[in-house]
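1st attempt posting a full record on here, be nice pls
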Amino acid sequence: MLFEGDADMVVLPGTAGEMGILPNHAPLLSTLGYGVIKVRYQGEEEIFTVAGGVVEVRPDIVTVLADRAENVREIDVARAEAAMERARKYLEEGPPPDTDEYLRMEAALRRSQLRLEAVRRYRKSRSGPDLAGVLEDQD
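the predicted structure (as tokens):
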């Protein structure tokens, strides 16, 4: 469980585009893509990365079942950078006979890039490594 409580608004990365959910929203069931979930409550905002899943919206509750999710404040930048580098090296070698492993590495690379971009964009300034150079190389 990443978040539980009342929210003023939840913004989700649906596979068909970003959606904003307010209290008393009409019932909805949707798949989630890779992206950022924003939960706004009492003048605060919690940010989570999400890598696929589903969301069920009822007038009084939003339930997210995610394949992978993480609070941006808790992302270990060094670990995300290491995972990204491992996945890049693996993918540079080309498709192996085990296509499932190749697809897993593509997903790992995408998750790592999402995590690092979310840290760069949403995490409050803290002392630590400068991510600007790392993230610019991804274009």
